[in-house]
Every structure is written in structure tokens, then in C-alpha cells.
Amino acid sequence: MRDGWYINENEEKLVHSMVFPDNHKLKEKLKGIKQVPEVLISVPVTTIHKFACKSWRYMDAYNKGLEGRTAEWAVSKYKSHHRLPDNIERIMDDLDNL
User: Fold this and answer.
1) For a tag on the chain, would you pick the N or C end, based on fewer CB atoms within 10 A?
2) Which residues contact 29 (CB under 8 A, 6 or more apart)?
3) Owning domain of residue 21
4) Residues 30-71: tens digit of each pLDDT
5) Overall pTM surpassing 0.85 (yes/no)
């Protein structure tokens, strides 16, 4: 697994290891992995399903060439569907020409 990073308050990029170091009792194990089962139990399956479907629609929108607010609009417009229509680009062009 790759190391993570973040920008601190001084706008410096700091690298953060995602595994415990060799001198730790949990050496070479992933950090945070113990909390995963607890967190998954605390979230309803319906919430996970909704998040997965919405993420899939965003990926579909980006794959079809939509960006930013256009992708956001298409995802909300077609939220009852599992994907965006194949002709979404034409639909967006027609809306722009109104």
C-alpha cells in the first residue's frame, strides 16, 4: 500500500505511512484496519448501496465526457437509474441550444 500525504497548516506536504513501523507491536499491519468491521456494522447496508450507486453514476458521467456541474446535474437528474443514458452528450447539447 502506498503512503498517504496531507498538507499541514504551514502548507507543507507531509507523508504519512499507512502501515505500522517495524518497532511497533502491530508491525507491517495496515493502520485503521481494526476499525473497519466496527464502522461497517454502524452503517446501514442501504446507505452503502446508495453511495455505491451514486459513485457509479459519477464514474459513468465522467466516462461519457461530462465534467463539473454538468456531471452533477446528470447524476441528480438520473438518480433513479443505475446509469446515465448513452445519448447524454446529445441531451446536454440540446439543453445548451435552448
Assistant:
1) C
2) 19, 20
3) 1-33
4) 888 778 888 889 999 999 999 998 999 899 889 988 888 888
5) no
